[in-house]
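A further point concerns the way the authors explain their paired sequence and structure data. For illustration, here is how one protein appears when written out as sequence plus structure tokens:
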Amino acid sequence: MRRLLLALALLATPAAAIDGPVFKGFGTYTATEHDVVIPRGTVLRHVYDVTAATPGKRNPGFETAARFINSHVGNGMAERDVAVAVVVHGPAIAELTRPEVYAARNAGPANASEAMVKAMLEKGVRFIVCGQAANAMGVKKADLLPGVELAISASSAHAILQAQGYTLNPF
């Protein structure tokens, strides 16, 4: 009976979030018993498409990209074998602007994604802004955080990344 109660208690306990190993304080993941083995020597190249943003809150799309890196490196892949790009258009572009530009566009809360984006850029994550959306929003290259790239369009960024072997996250 005690074993049954212990088993039920373990099932009812949510999986604990793991911090790091690449990014601390964001991109947490859970340990997962998995059957799909990543063959030795595999290099993952993955791209996320992010449009949504909520002023004053960390961008969940950016954090998902960090989680992808943390979870794979945390499960034994070499950091150099996990390449991630984030193609950004729509309201999320604001979260890739310099602090003074963000403040001028968003009265109130500071950019909650800025530190996360800077840490991700330092680790080689590419943030690529859609030039068409940026132009429509009045955002210039000089308005972007250092290291953020500007493409002709989100479509061209995706086409180039796909030609370089990146797969698009399906959700």
In short: Strands lie at 17-18, 29-30, 44-50, 82-88, 126-130, 149-151, 167-168. The chain has six helices and seven strands.
